[in-house]
Design brief:
Number of helices: 9
CATH class of the largest domain: Alpha Beta
Largest sheet: 6 strands, mixed
CATH topology of the largest domain: Rossmann fold
CATH architecture of the largest domain: 3-Layer(aba) Sandwich
Structural class: alpha/beta
Radius of gyration: 19 Å
Order of helices and strands: HHHHHEHEEEHEEEHEH
Helix content: 40-55%
Number of strands: 8
Distance between the termini: 30 Å
Mean pLDDT: 81
Shape: globular
Length: 222
């Protein structure tokens, strides 16, 4: 495969970890350029669905630059041939066969937003974000609340006392499924386990399964 232009945006070491509007726009433009540079056969040679790959690039561009025009991405998705949809396998992996509503994404940055778009496009709703950054507690990010780890624990493990009894019962509310959307997920996985959260996945572990499942709902990102 030959692509005429560079696909890499880099920054000097002192800027590492920092984002600005110019850099994010340049990244989004590179994602669109990459999408326009690939032929259908080249994408198939990668072993992924063209619709899924185009939507992944769309999600990356929107996560970087919320106001970036995604019209060309949407046209590519809608004009790509439909293929077998493995949504049932994704639901089975995540929920044991039936869709639950209490889904939390840990990490509300670049990767977390991408994951939200990816799940929404497969008709799986995300209830909230969770983050260790105190500045994000009790804020709304991409239309959903961002809560603290303490609040996540409170929402997930909610003991209550029976009237007239000393016995404690676990709340009947649905246990949270937490998907860690961070590059370094090991520490957060340990943190969540210490909070008593049992249903933990990572974006890395789900990525292949997500790409095998075609996006069908584009309304969330339009």
């Amino acid at each position: 495969m030959f692509v005429k232009k560079s696909l890499l945006c880099s920054r000097i070491h002192g800027q590492s970890g920092k984002s600005n509007d110019k850099f994010n726009l340049e990244c989004s433009e590179q994602y669109l350029h990459f999408a326009n540079s690939l032929s259908y056969n080249e994408i198939k040679d990668m072993g992924v669905s063209p619709r899924a790959l185009y939507f992944r690039l769309l999600s990356m561009a929107k996560s970087r630059t919320p106001n970036f025009s995604i019209k060309e991405f949407v046209e590519k998705i809608e004009n790509s041939p439909s293929e077998n949809n493995n949504a049932k396998q994704l639901v089975l992996q995540l929920f044991g066969g039936s869709v639950r509503k209490n889904i939390c994404i840990f990490g509300s940055g670049f990767h977390g937003k991408i994951l939200k778009y990816e799940l929404n496009a497969r008709n799986i709703d995300v209830k909230y974000f969770c983050d260790n950054n105190e500045d994000k507690f009790n804020t709304v990010i991409d239309g959903i609340s961002c809560i603290s780890p303490a609040e996540l624990h409170k929402n997930t493990v909610r003991p209550c006392r029976l009237v007239g009894s000393d016995d404690l019962l676990t709340s009947s509310s649905e246990p949270a499924i937490v998907i860690v959307a961070l590059d370094m997920s090991d520490l957060v996985e340990s943190q969540l386990k210490n909070l008593g959260i049992k249903h933990i996945f990572t974006k890395k572990n789900l990525d292949t399964l997500i790409l095998d499942c075609q996006p069908t709902n584009l309304q969330e990102v339009k």
